[in-house]
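Support reply, case 0932

Customer input (verbatim):
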Amino acid sequence: MLTIVGWQVKGELVVTPNNTAVLTGQRAVLLCRSDNPGFGSRAITWSRPVDGGASELIATGCRIASEFLQLYSVVSDDTGHCNLVVGSTTAAVTGLYICSEPNLQAAEAHLTAIGQLFDM
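Our regenerated output:
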């Protein structure tokens, strides 16, 4: 749904991430899409809370911050998708992830890495 606030047209998140569990070492994808006209995926920010109540800003404007390029990437398109990709899931990257449009709507999901089972 589109709303007009002042002279700005603002959208909403129309696809939000789901809680996801993958085997340790596997790739994980968290989905997010905005219908913000004119901005689409460029309106999306990905973050995650860290110790002490602060947040790590992983991606803004659907671009990964330089310090996270080894861990994450994004897949985006002209329809507003900005999907966060975790290349290799480890305990260090498990936890809560937040997809948001700044000052608007946010959606969150947990990423869990499950240890691999071995035949005995």
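We compared this against your earlier run and they match. Two observations from our side: Residues 1-9 have pLDDT under 50 and may be disordered. The CA atoms of residues 95 and 111 lie 5 Å apart. Please reopen the case if you see a mismatch on your end.
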